[in-house]
Amino acid sequence: MSLNTLSDVLGPAYRGGYAVAGLVVLGWEDARAFVEAAEAEGAPVILQAGPGCRAHTPLPILAAMFRTLADDAAVPVVAHLDHGYSREECVAAIDAGFTSVMFDGSRKPLQQNIEETAAIVELARSAGVSSEGEIGFVGYAAGEGSAATDPEEARLFAEATQVDAMAVSVGNVHLKESADVTIDFAAIRAIEAVTRVPLVIHGASGVPPETRTALARTTAVCKFNIGTELRKCFGTALREAVNRDPARFDRNAILSETTAPVRQAARNAIRAIAAVRETGAESAGCEGVDTKSTHGERTAHSHAGKSA
Ligand SMILES: [Zn+2]
After folding, report:
1. Total-model pTM
2. Across all residues in the chain, what is the average pLDDT?
3. CA 290 to CA 233: how far, in whole Å?
4. Which entry of 30, 71, 72, 82 is annotated as an active-site residue?
């Protein structure tokens, strides 16, 4: 049994100078591959059910799937609701057995975001569940623009809501298909100078792997949400598997060929931010997220938040 809450895995990451991957799940095949990747890397993992996933598969099924994978996993697994937009959604997730919920009030006025998030935090905590909130607004590639997180608002938000993790907007953007955004390290320093909450970077697919490594090791960023690059890997592998044999129609046979590439892509993503280990593992990227070069840089920084 290795089902954990978000607090269980982010506390050690905050203190230890590393981060945990929040991998965006769309179904059984990728969820299973993500847990296998985490086991291979000896790292905890956060399985995330976002709005797209929930529109396809009912929440109780996702909860059962995540919990079943966690039960058999050799590493800590968190069952996380990503971007819950209402109290009802968060309640449904908690009732279904998720161990962590994100309430996203980032499109709402500050005071409303604070009040509604605080209510979810209280509710979740009474059920033994962790919570994540968002301050500022992380925009979408070819969609809504971002609103950078204001450090003073972040301080207020963290203090008033008591969230276990806080998503911030510091140059990161959702749904980026290339890893080329510039992260505002000065903004992160300003935020972590006035809070002690583990920070979350949504849209990590757009953040260069070496930047993720630097953030994991030297800042209070303890969770990276990674979806797009893994979806691209899955989609590419699936397309190849379908086209490989036009006579094949058994979908489980076709889908089985997505496992190895998705597992490898997830391993690369996890390794770039995980606690430094002495064993060097091989990597052969699916979508070119090869972290071998950064893996060798053993910096001994701990999070600034730890000593602040
Ligand atoms: Zn997000």
Report:
1. 0.91
2. 92
3. 13
4. 82
